[in-house]
């Protein structure tokens, strides 16, 4: 099996028959971060209240209420809360808009977007698009009979408007940038599959065939985090899952997620979450 396929995100967004999901909570408990990640699905982020910043392939955007972002297939993206954001993520497989038979919509519009031959700008100010996205989220939450029909037709309307108004442009991303992106994806994949093991900058830089200095610089440029920050934040997320779902001790959890020093684990946990692991566990069981 191709190693890249094996390491890809394993989350199923929606179902095989309706491959779309709307996520209502983008920022995990008592954390202001949405860790850098990527997937083959297209994504629309919508901010209903508050403010938040998002990074997409190294480009930073700050969203205010009722603003939205388009995230192309395969883009590395992350987020950070600024002021109590209520953010939604609409994540869907573009194949849900394609028929099995020869299809001009698939060939002329959808596949070029999926293959990044054309790009949808990340940030667009457009009241009609905002209305469509808001209505899609509302319909998803209500789930009235026939809601799948509306959501699918809504997505077609969104792409019709994007193409009709000239927002979609020929891809200006060159091969050099794509190569950089793939190297950081490889590092992210490796970290996510081996976070409980000993990880070093030297090991990660070898995986990407980059010098240690350039790897760290490129990782920060694309994800807005240092490799060590990313590893620590990921380990804390995994620790929170274990605190909530198991009876393991604090020291057992520390070693389970890759920390070889319990005191350091407690220090990093408190730094990112605001309370100690023990306080979190007690709070979660109340």
How would you describe this protein?
InterPro entries: AraC-bd (IPR003313), Homeodomain-like_sf (IPR009057), HTH-like (IPR037923), HTH_AraC (IPR018060), HTH_AraC-typ_CS (IPR018062), RmlC-like_jellyroll (IPR014710), Tscrpt_reg_AraC-type_HTH (IPR020449). With about 290 residues, the protein is α+β, with helices and mostly antiparallel strands. The chain folds into two domains: about 10-170, Jelly Rolls; about 175-285, Arc Repressor Mutant, subunit A (Orthogonal Bundle), CATH 1.10.10.60. It has helices spanning about 5, 105-115, 125-140, 145-165, 175-195, 200-210, 210-225, 225-245, 250-255, 260-275, 275-285, and strands at about 20-25, 35, 40-55, 60-65, 65-70, 75-90, 120, 170. Strand 3 (about 40-55) and strand 4 form a beta hairpin. Helix 6 (about 200-210) packs across helix 7 (about 210-225). The longest helix is centred in the middle third of the chain and has 20 residues, at about 175-195. The radius of gyration is 20 Å and the shape is globular. Mean pLDDT is about 90; it is low at about 1-10.
């Amino acid at each position: 099996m191709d190693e890249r396929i094996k390491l890809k995100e394993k989350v199923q967004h929606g179902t095989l028959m309706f491959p779309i999901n709307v996520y209502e909570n983008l920022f995990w408990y008592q954390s202001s971060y949405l860790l850098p990640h990527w997937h083959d699905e297209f994504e629309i982020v919508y901010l209903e209240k508050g403010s938040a910043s998002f990074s997409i392939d190294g480009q930073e955007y700050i969203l205010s209420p009722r603003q939205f972002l388009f995230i192309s297939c395969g883009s590395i993206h992350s987020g950070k809360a600024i002021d109590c954001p209520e953010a939604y993520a609409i994540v869907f497989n573009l194949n849900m808009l394609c028929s099995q038979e020869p299809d001009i919509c698939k060939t002329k519009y959808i596949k070029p977007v999926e293959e990044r031959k054309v790009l949808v700008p990340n940030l667009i100010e457009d009241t009609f698009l905002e209305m469509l996205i808001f209505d899609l989220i509302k319909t998803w939450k209500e789930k009235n009979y026939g809601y799948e029909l509306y959501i699918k037709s809504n997505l077609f309307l969104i792409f019709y408007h994007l193409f009709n108004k000239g927002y979609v442009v020929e891809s200006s991303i060159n091969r050099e940038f794509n190569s950089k992106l793939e190297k950081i994806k490889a590092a992210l994949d490796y970290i996510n599959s081996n976070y409980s093991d000993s990880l070093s900058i030297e090991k990660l830089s070898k995986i990407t065939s980059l010098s240690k200095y350039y790897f760290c610089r490129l990782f920060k440029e694309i994800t807005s985090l240092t490799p060590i920050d990313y590893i620590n934040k990921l380990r804390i997320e995994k620790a929170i899952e274990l605190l909530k779902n198991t009876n393991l001790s604090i020291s057992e959890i520390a070693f389970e997620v890759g920390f070889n020093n319990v005191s350091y684990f407690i220090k990093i946990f408190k730094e990112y979450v605001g309370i100690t692991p023990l306080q979190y566990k007690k709070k979660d069981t109340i």
